[in-house]
Amino acid sequence: MPAASLRLHFEPDHEEFRTGVRRFFQQEIAPHVERWREQGHVDRSAFTQAGALGYLLTWAGEQYGGAGIDDLRYEQILVEECVRHADVGIYFNLHSTVVAPYIAEIGNEEQRQRFLPKAISGEHILAIAMTEPGAGSDLAGMRTQAKPTADGSGWVLNGAKTYISNGTQADVVVVAARTSTESKHAIGLFVVEAGMPGFTRGRKLKKMGLPAQDTAELFFDHVVVPAANVLGDPTQGFAHMARLLAKERLSLAMTSLAHAQTAFDLTLDYIKERQAFGQAIGAFQNSRFVMAGLRAELDATQCFVDQCVLLANAGRLDADTGAKAKLLATDLEGKVIDACLQLHGGAGYMDEYRISRMYTDARVSRIFAGSNEIMKEIIGRGLGLYGRRR
Ligand SMILES: Cc1cc2nc3c(=O)[nH]c(=O)nc-3n(C[C@H](O)[C@H](O)[C@H](O)COP(=O)(O)OP(=O)(O)OC[C@H]3O[C@@H](n4cnc5c(N)ncnc54)[C@H](O)[C@@H]3O)c2cc1C
Fold it and tell me: How far, in Å, CA of 321 to CA of 310, rounded?
C-alpha cells in the first residue's frame, strides 16, 4: 500500500469500516477462494453473507434496505480489501457499482422497489449483458433485437450475448438490445429475470484467468419482457450507458490498482528474503530501480484514482476522466505484475506463488469494460480529435 500519508481522502469512519471489511474477507471469503477457482464460480452464500453485513450496494437508500451512504470511498475499501485478502475475481463490485446503478438511476420507483432489496441482501445476483459474438467495442453493431409485442404490453427479445460476468448465476440481467430497425443508435435496456421463458444460458466459458468469476453466453429466444421491466426510454440506452460507464471504469481502475499494489507488496517481501550471489535479490541495483520506479508510478496513479473517487462523489466524474482512470490503472497493473513476476524468477511461473495467477488474472483488465484502445478514443474525442465518422 502507498504510505497512508499519501491518501488524504479517507476519514476515521472509513478506516473503521475497513477493519470490519478486512476481517470479513480474511475470515469468511479467503478460505473458500481456492475451491471457487476450481468450481468456476463463487458460492451464492458469499453474496448473502456480504449482503447481511451491508457490504452490497452500500450507496442504496434505506427505503430499499440499504445503508443510504452514497460515498464511493466505501466501495473502494471493499474492492481493496477483497483484492488484497481474497481474490481479484470476486465481483461484488460488478453487482454493486456497475449493474445496480442502472436500476437505481435509470429505473423508476416501482422498479427500484422491486429489484433493489434482493440485490442489497444478496438473494439476487446481478449481471449486465452488452457484448455479443459480433459486437464488443462497436456496440452499435449489436444484433440482439427487441420488438414491441402486438398488444403493446411489452417487448419480444431475440439474440445472444457473450462473455457475461456472473452469467451463469445471475438472477437479474440488464440486457441491451436494439429497438429500431432504422437507427442503430436506438438501444433499450431490458431487465431479464431468471426463469423467463426463452431465456437460456450457454456454457460457462473457459478463460486464461479469473477462474472464480463465472463468464457465460446468454441466449434470448422470443423472450417476452413486460413493459414494466424496461429501464428508462427504450431508445436512449446509449446515452444511459455512456453516463454509467464512467463509474464502471473507475470501479475497474480501483480494482486494478489494488491488484497492482498487492503484487508490489508481496514482491517486496519476496525479494528481501530470496538470496542470490550471497545477497538478497532486492539488493541488486536493478531490483531497487525497478521497484522504485513502480512505487513512484503506483503512488501517482493512486492519487489520481482517489481524486476520481471524490469527483464521482461530487457527481463530476465525466466519461473522459473515467476513461483516463481505467487506462492508467489497468496499464500500470499489467506493467507492475509483469515486472514483479520477473523479480520472482522461476517461482513466479509456478501456480503456488500468487504472482503467477495475478499475471493471468490481470490480462483482461486492458480488454474489458471497454478496451484501452477505446479509452484512448474517448479521451481523444474529448480533446476534439475525431477520426473518420461513420
Ligand atoms: C472475462 C470477461 C468478462 C466480461 N464481462 C462482460 C460483461 O459482464 N458484460 C458485457 O457486456 N461484456 C463483458 N465482457 C466483454 C468485454 O467488455 C469486451 O470483450 C470488450 O469490450 C472488447 O470487445 P471485443 O471482445 O468484441 O473485442 P473487439 O471489439 O473485437 O476488439 C478487438 C481489438 O480491436 C481493438 N479495437 C476495436 N475497435 C477499435 C477502435 N475503434 N480503435 C482502435 N482499436 C480498436 C480493441 O481494442 C481490441 O484490441 C467481458 C469480457 C471478458 C473477457
Answer: 12
Residues 256 and 348 in one domain: yes
Decide whether any atom of ligand 1 lies within 6 Å of the 136 Cβ.
yes
Q: How far apart are CA 184 and CA 7, in angstroms?
A: 44
Write down the residue that cell numbers 436500476 correspond to.
103
pLDDT at 390: 53
Domain shared by 354 and 275, yes or no: yes
Alpha-carbon span 270 to 390, nearest angstrom: 52
- How far is the centre of ligand 1, averaged over its atoms, from the C-alpha of 389 (Å)? 20
Q: Give the pLDDT confidence score for residue 389 in this predicted structure.
A: 60
Nearest CA among 252, 212, 269 for reference residue 332: 252
Q: Which residues contact 169 (CB under 8 A, 6 or more apart)?
A: 41, 42, 44, 125, 214
Same domain for 119 and 222? Answer: no
The predicted pLDDT at position 88 comes to 83
Paired residues of 146 in beta bridges:
157
Which atom number of ligand 1 is nearest to the Cα of residue 210?
1
Pick the last residue of a domain from 234, 252, 275: 234
Q: What is the pLDDT of residue 386?
A: 87
Domain containing residue 290? 238-382
Residue 91: predicted pLDDT: 85
Are 140 and 173 in the same domain?
yes
Give the pLDDT confidence score for residue 343 in this predicted structure: 98
Q: For the chain, what is the domain count? A: 3
- 81 in active site: no
Chunk the chain into consecutive blocks of 10 residues (it has 390) and report each block's average pLDDT, rounded to whole numbers.
75 97 97 95 97 97 95 97 92 94 97 98 98 94 96 97 96 97 91 98 94 96 98 95 93 98 98 98 98 98 98 96 98 98 98 97 97 97 82
pLDDT at 3: 54
Tell whether ligand 1 has an atom less than 6 A from the beta carbon of residue 98.
Answer: no
Percent helix / strand / coil, the chain, rounded to 5: 55, 15, 30
Contact indicator for 326, 372 with CB cutoff of 8 Å: yes
Instruction: Say if CB 288 and CB 390 are below 8 A apart.
Output: no
Mutate to test the pocket of ligand 1, among 90, 92, 93, 131 (most ligand atoms within 8 A of CB): 131
